[in-house]
Design goal:
302 residues; alpha/beta; eight-stranded mixed sheet; 8 strands; 44% helix; globular
C-alpha cells in the first residue's frame, strides 16, 4: 500500500496555502501517511497531524491571526512588499518610525520580537508529544551552534514548532537539549528527504518559496535580511525539490512572508493548485513500487 508523505516548505504567510492543499486532499479521501514541515510548514503540518482534519487547522489558524496577541506583534509593519492600501501619509510615516524604533531597541537582543511576545503566539499550539500525533510528523529546525539541520520526531509539539519557525532575526532562537535552534528554512527549505525518513515511500512537496526575480531593490538593512533569506530559500528549494515525486506550487510567489492579512486568499490559492494536480496525485498513488523506481530513474536524466 502506498505511503504518501507531504513535505511542507517554509515561506511565512505564503505557507497558509498548505491548508488549501490539505483541504483538497481531505475532500478527495486521500490518506496522508507522514508529514514533515519546516517553518510555517511545520506549523500547518503539526496541527494537521494533531487534528487530522484540514478544516480544523484552518479554523485554528484564522482564529490565531485574528487574536489580539497576534495583532500586537504588528507583523504587517515588517512587510517587505510595502503595501500602502488605505493608509494616509501620516499613518505610513508613523508606521515607518515605529518599526525603526523597535528595530533599534532590538539591537541588544537576538531578535526583533522578544521571548514574551513569541510565547504569546506559540502558547496556543497544543503542548502534546510529537510521537502521540494521529499522523507521523517531524519538524526541521537549524542548530545555530553547529549549523546542523535537526529533524525532530519526538518532544513537545509546541516547542519543536516554535523552533522550526523561529525566523532568524525576527523571533528568538529556541533552546532544546544542547541545541540553539532557528527556522528550519535556513538549512532545509522543502524537507523532501526528511519525510522519507519517517515512513513515506512517495512524496508530494508543496513549494511556497518566493520568486526572487520579483523582489524590489534593497534600500536598508531589513531589505538586505529579507533578500538574503529569499535567495537562500530559493537555492535550497531547487536542490530539495529534485527529490520529490510531485511538486505543487501555489501561485503565492509574489507575496511577502508577512502577508497574513491575505490569509483567506492564500488558502484558496492552495486549494486551486491542489485541484489542478489532483489527477497527478492519484496517478502517483496508483504506481507500484517497481513503476515508481523506473519513473525516478528516468527523472534523473531530465
Amino acid at each position: 500500500m502506498a505511503k504518501l508523505g507531504l513535505a511542507l516548505g517554509g515561506g511565512g504567510a505564503r505557507g497558509l496555502a498548505h491548508i488549501g492543499v490539505l483541504k483538497v486532499l481531505d475532500e478527495s479521501g486521500i490518506k496522508i501517511s507522514a508529514i514533515t514541515g519546516c517553518s510555517i510548514g511545520a506549523i500547518i503540518g503539526g496541527l494537521y497531524a494533531h487534528f487530522g482534519n484540514a478544516i480544523m487547522v484552518e479554523e485554528f489558524i484564522l482564529k490565531a491571526i485574528n487574536d489580539p496577541a497576534f495583532a500586537r506583534l504588528d507583523i504587517e509593519s515588517l512587510n517587505d512588499n510595502n503595501k500602502t492600501i488605505n493608509k494616509n501619509s501620516l499613518e505610513k510615516f508613523s508606521k515607518y518610525i515605529k518599526t525603526r524604533i523597535h528595530a533599534i531597541n532590538a539591537l541588544g537582543r537576538l531578535s526583533y520580537f522578544d521571548s514574551n511576545s513569541a510565547d504569546e503566539i506559540y502558547n496556543a499550539i497544543p503542548d502534546v508529544p510529537v510521537e502521540s500525533l494521529r499522523i507521523p510528523f517531524s519538524a526541521v529546525a537549524t542548530d545555530l551552534n553547529s549549523g546542523e539541520e535537526i529533524n525532530f520526531t519526538e518532544g513537545s509539539l509546541r516547542k519543536v514548532i516554535k523552533a522550526s519557525s523561529a525566523i532568524p532575526g525576527i523571533f528568538p532562537p529556541v533552546g532544546i537539549d544542547n541545541y540553539l535552534l532557528i527556522d528550519g528554512s535556513a538549512s532545509e527549505s522543502v524537507p523532501v528527504r526528511k519525510v522519507k525518513e519517517i515512513g513515506a515511500d512517495r512524496v508530494i512537496a508543496v513549494d511556497v518559496t518566493k520568486n526572487i526575480k520579483l523582489s524590489k531593490p534593497v534600500n536598508n538593512i531589513l531589505d538586505v535580511l529579507y533578500r538574503t533569506e529569499d535567495v537562500t530559500s530559493y537555492q535550497l528549494s531547487k536542490i530539495r525539490l529534485t527529490e520529490a515525486d510531485l511538486i505543487i506550487s501555489p501561485q503565492v510567489k509574489a507575496l511577502s512572508w508577512a502577508d497574513f492579512d491575505c490569509a483567506i486568499d492564500i488558502i484558496q490559492l492552495g486549494e486551486t493548485a491542489a485541484k489542478e494536480n489532483l489527477d497527478k496525485i492519484k496517478r502517483l498513488l496508483s504506481l507500484g513500487s517497481y513503476s515508481l523506481k523506473i519513473r525516478r530513474y528516468f527523472k534523473k536524466f531530465r
